[in-house]
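<instruction>
Derive structure tokens from the sequence
<data>
Labelled lines for chain and fold:
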Amino acid sequence: MLFPGWIFSLRNLALLDISGCGFSGVNPGTDGGFHSMPSLRTLRLSTNAFVNSSLLLNGFSSLSNLRFLDVRYCHISSPVLGNLQNLSLMEYLHLSNNHIVEEIPKSLSSLCNFTTLHLHYNKFSGNVSELLERFCECESPKLELLDFSNNHLIGQLPERLGKLKNL
């Protein structure tokens, strides 16, 4: 089943939940993408294979109001975290159970509004110590849940992790 492209014209839509719909692509000739929906605050796309489209993934970077993104089980294999590093309001990110192969960018930890970060069951690499140290530098860290399990990460848990009182 193809995702109806007309949804991208809903510029004032704040919440879109199409989880579990099984979309496998976007209608050919569709103009736009998520980047044309600047009011989105919540985007639930889990269990839809069409999300692996580079065009759609690149559109996430312009969703400056986005606070909640769920793209688990979407067969994503393209790097996606770099597209999220400017989303300073992001609180909840669920990327688990995909096939993402990329190094976790250090800039991800500068997103100090994160409360929940699910990155498990992917192929992320990098030094988790450096990432966690940067979260500890947030003025008012809000992180409550962090799941990096079943990836290819190295490093140790830093002593300063105790600063994250909500974790």
